[in-house]
Amino acid sequence: MRIVASVLGLVLFLVGVYAAISYSGLSPRVWQKKRLLDRYLTARGYRTHYILLSGYRPPWLNRLMPLSARKSVHQQGQAIDLLVFDINGNHRFDPADLRILSDALDHLDSQHPRYRGGVGLYRQSFPRMLHFDVSGRHRHWDY
User: Which helix (H) or strand (E) holds 53?
Assistant: First the structure.
């Protein structure tokens, strides 16, 4: 039982360290884009049922991530990956939730050029994850 408690304690510690690294290095512009997204969804009756899964990544950590691009903007603190739950209020995750978020981010990019960036989906490998960034380059991808 002590081994299980020790391993669990180590896992929780590592998650805490990762969260501290991930959140602390994010640029103010990406935080502002997330706040704009929250307000946009709420104003239209949608839920903001997602959590920040990944943000800033130092280069050494970025190299360990299996889907990460070599020149990922996460390394500059300009990107966020969200773990998506129920956005449309039907009490379950479905593809419509990702579409709502993607459309909302497209709208924000057109209305707020300062926060323009990419929107990435990972439906084949991690279907609940959505990436967005403030790189200045509006683009989409789906892996």
Answer: strand 50-54
The residue among 137, 110, 133 whose CA lies nearest residue 29 is 133
Contact 54, 23 (CB under 8 A): no
DSSP string, 74-140: GGGT-EEEEEE--SSSSSS--HHHHHHHHHHHHHHHHH-GGG--EEEE-TTT-TTEEEEE-SS--EE
Three-state DSSP class for residue 142: strand
Per-residue pLDDT band for 91 (boundaries 50, 70, 90) equals very high
> Distance between CA 100 and CA 122 in Å, rounded?
15
Tell me the pTM: 0.85
Which of 108, 124, 88, 123 lies closest to 132, judged by CA?
108
Phi and psi torsions of 120, nearest 5°: -120, 135
Q: Which residue has the higher pLDDT, 140 or 2?
A: 140
Return the ∠ at Cα 112 (arms to 44 and 22), rounded to 5°. Answer: 85
Using only C-alpha atoms, the chain has a radius of gyration, in whole angstroms, of 16
